From TrEMBL:
<dbReference type="InterPro" id="IPR019818">
    <property type="entry name" value="IsoCit/isopropylmalate_DH_CS"/>
</dbReference>
<dbReference type="GO" id="GO:0051287">
    <property type="term" value="F:NAD binding"/>
</dbReference>
<dbReference type="GO" id="GO:0003862">
    <property type="term" value="F:3-isopropylmalate dehydrogenase activity"/>
</dbReference>
<protein>
    <submittedName>
        <fullName>3-isopropylmalate dehydrogenase</fullName>
        <ecNumber>1.1.1.85</ecNumber>
    </submittedName>
</protein>
<keyword id="KW-0520">NAD</keyword>
<keyword id="KW-0479">Metal-binding</keyword>
<dbReference type="Pfam" id="PF00180">
    <property type="entry name" value="Iso_dh"/>
</dbReference>
<keyword id="KW-0560">Oxidoreductase</keyword>
<keyword id="KW-0464">Manganese</keyword>
<dbReference type="InterPro" id="IPR050501">
    <property type="entry name" value="ICDH/IPMDH"/>
</dbReference>
<dbReference type="InterPro" id="IPR024084">
    <property type="entry name" value="IsoPropMal-DH-like_dom"/>
</dbReference>
<feature type="domain" description="Isopropylmalate dehydrogenase-like">
    <location>
        <begin position="5"/>
        <end position="353"/>
    </location>
</feature>
<dbReference type="GO" id="GO:0000287">
    <property type="term" value="F:magnesium ion binding"/>
</dbReference>
Length: 361
């Protein structure tokens, strides 16, 4: 039997509530698809830090190399210094395990979920490939004369040829796959590089890496947009995009915008990927402390992250079962919105997805 070792970090706030629903769906799909898995629980979170003062210990990174994948709920606690636990858990994992791609699909399942006028599911279906280990997130920098009137703060944006090249290559390969799925009569596959090389000259490293990789994919159209213009196009003509490849920070920012186009933070999912190695899947929303403990958070982002994980593990059938069930529940209006106003509790929504998956099989 196919068997996977999966780490689980439910985390803070609404994290444990949505993670529970993700695992509920995973259990149902495993049974239908006939694969097994072992869950390894990890307590790392702001909550855990407040109790124990423990962040992620270095040895854990090595332990995680032995996992097939990790599912993360959400990290962030209002009583902990902002970013401390996020940097240890989220960035610690991304950097420690060299998960160099942050894959963020932006797909609209039902017109009613989209805040844009006259845009429907046929207009919003693209993927952001966010470089995930460099850029403004390099953690290289610091303070001089801290807490004095002369304080200086420096942060370095770090871009390497290797980092840009592999992100671009991943994006082109993904565009090729998406094109093959759409078939020859549909639009040509396209990759858009998003950077800011008019103002930030060293971003031209991205242009050169992109151009070199593009040579290996003559059948794929290329495009380029500055990040500010990209935000404009995402609202004005989202149908232009197929695959976007971009820097760590720009990818972070444009995917919150992208999440709104597909129905809100409650539905957006992501994968932190190192092809062939341990990868981590999470909703893109945070711990939303104000909604915590109320059973009102939308678990669809987490559930879709489970679908992405299964796709990564080669369990395409299981991945599609989840995606099709979520799509149908949103399309039919059975789930009217992907936020706390849906009128459906977190746990009931997880049950609905499981029921839909069973009904369709
Ligand atoms: C995300 C989040 C993280 C990021 C934070 C929590 C460090 O915003 O996954 O998009 O900036 O990458
Ligand atoms: Mg973000």
């Amino acid at each position: 039997m196919r068997n996977y070792k999966i780490g689980s970090i439910p985390g803070d706030g609404i994290g444990p509530e949505v993670a529970r629903e993700g695992l509920k769906v995973l259990e149902a799909v495993a049974e239908l698809e006939g694969f097994g898995y072992e869950l390894v629980d990890y307590p790392y979170s702001g909550e855990h830090y407040l109790k124990t003062k423990e962040l992620v210990p270095d040895r854990i990174i090595d332990e995680w190399r032995g996992l097939d994948a990790v599912l993360l709920g959400a990290i962030g606690h209002p009583d902990v210094e902002p970013g401390l636990v996020e940097r240890s858990v989220i960035l610690g994992l991304r950097f420690g395990l060299d998960m160099y791609i942050n894959l963020r699909p932006i797909k609209l399942y039902s017109e009613g979920l989209c805040p844009l006028k006259d845009k429907g599911p046929e207009d919003i279906d693209f993927v952001v490939v966010r470089e995930n280990t460099e850029g403004m997130y390099s953690q290289i920098g610091g303070h001089l004369k801290k807490n004095t009137p002369d304080e200086v703060a420096i942060v370095n944006g770090v871009y390497t040829w290797k980092g840009c090249e592999r992100a671009c290559r991943y994006a082109f390969e993904l565009a090729r796959e998406r094109g093959a799925v759409r078939g020859p009569d549909a639009r040509k596959p396209q990759v858009t590089l998003v950077d800011k090389d008019n103002a930030i000259r060293p971003h031209d490293l991205w242009d050169r890496a992109f151009a070199q990789v593009a040579n290996d994919f003559p059948e794929i159209d290329t495009d380029h947009a500055y990040v500010d213009a990209c935000c404009m196009w995402m609202v004005k003509n989202p149908e232009w995009f197929d695959v976007i490849v971009t820097t760590n920070l720009f990818g972070d920012i444009i995917t919150d915008l992208g999440a709104m186009l597909q129905g809100g933070m409650g539905i957006a999912a992501s994968g932190n990927i190192h092809p062939g190695k341990t990868s981590m899947f999470e909703p893109i929303h945070g711990s939303a402390p104000k909604h915590a403990g109320k059973n009102v958070a939308c678990p669809l982002g987490m559930i879709s992250a489970v679908s992405m994980m299964l796709d990564f593990l080669g369990e395409r059938g299981g991945s599609e079962r989840i995606e099709n069930a979520v799509a149908e529940l949103l399309r039919s209006g059975a789930i009217p919105s992907a936020d706390t106003r849906s009128g459906i509790s977190t746990s009931a929504m997880g049950d609905m997805v499981v029921a839909e998956i069973r009904d369709r099989s």
